[in-house]
Amino acid sequence: MSSSSIHYRPEKTDKKLINPKNLPVKMYEPRNSPLTDLFIENKHIKSVYNLGIAMFLGTVLSTAVTEYANEGRVYLGFRTINCAFRNFRYVFLIWPVMFLSSLAVFYGFVIWAKTRIHLKFKHLTYQFFNLNLEKVWDFLCLTFFVLYYPTVLYFAFKAVLVCHLGIASSLTVTMEATRFLMKAHAFVRTNCPKYIQKTNETLHPTLNHYFYFLFAPVLVYKESYPR
Q1: Would you call 33 exposed, middle or buried from its count of C-beta atoms within 10 A (0-12, 13-18, 19+)?
Q2: Which residue has the higher pLDDT, 76 or 185?
Q3: pTM, whole model, 2 decimals?
Q4: How far apart are the first and last CA of the chain?
Q5: Secondary structure element (H or E) that encloses residue 25, with its range
Q6: Helices in 4-132 by DSSP H: which ranges?
Q7: Alpha helix (H) ranges present in 119-227?
Q8: Are the CB atoms for 66 and 148 separated by under 8 Å?
Q9: How far is it, in rounded angstroms, from Cα 107 to Cα 103?
Q10: pLDDT tens digits along 129-186
Q11: 116: Cβ–Cβ under 8 A, 6 or more apart, which residues?
């Protein structure tokens, strides 16, 4: 029997489908968060929670008394907070640019997928060259997508330096840039095989799916998630 006639049947486990030829696929199940289960099953955790609140209030009161005694007014750490969030207003200008760049990934993917269908089985012959237009188009789009990563990171770091952002503001920009990159990678990584392997998929990515995925607390793209 030839290797091309062998069909692998995915083996289903508790959390994922394991296929010898593909990467594992996450299986989502509705369930409580670990903290919810911990608070329900262990009553002592509530005591620790109340103790933490009491320690926090005690620390705030102690800090307020100390600052008032030494400086005649109460800051409660707001000077440190103001320093950390310096120029935070610029974050509201930087974030939309990164968000629009992530939307460009979606529309770029749509253009790639639709154009790829029209270029299927087409070749460009010139003298001794016989180019597969489908592969050339894939290579060009992959190049642009790879360049997207350093471009977003460069923009984020450049914005941090130019706007003189505080440490918390800087973390906000860089972490959001990283999140958008991870979301874009997961989206492209999940949907590309549908078109490259020419599988008959009933669900294709839409803008609503992509919007939901951008703000959902997950890093694995799915058309739907359990609620």
Answers
A1: exposed
A2: 185
A3: 0.72
A4: 45
A5: strand 25-26
A6: 34-41, 44-71, 78-84, 91-118
A7: 133-162, 167-196, 207-215
A8: no
A9: 6
A10: 567 778 888 899 999 999 999 999 999 999 999 999 999 999 999 999 999 999 999 9
A11: 134, 137, 138, 195
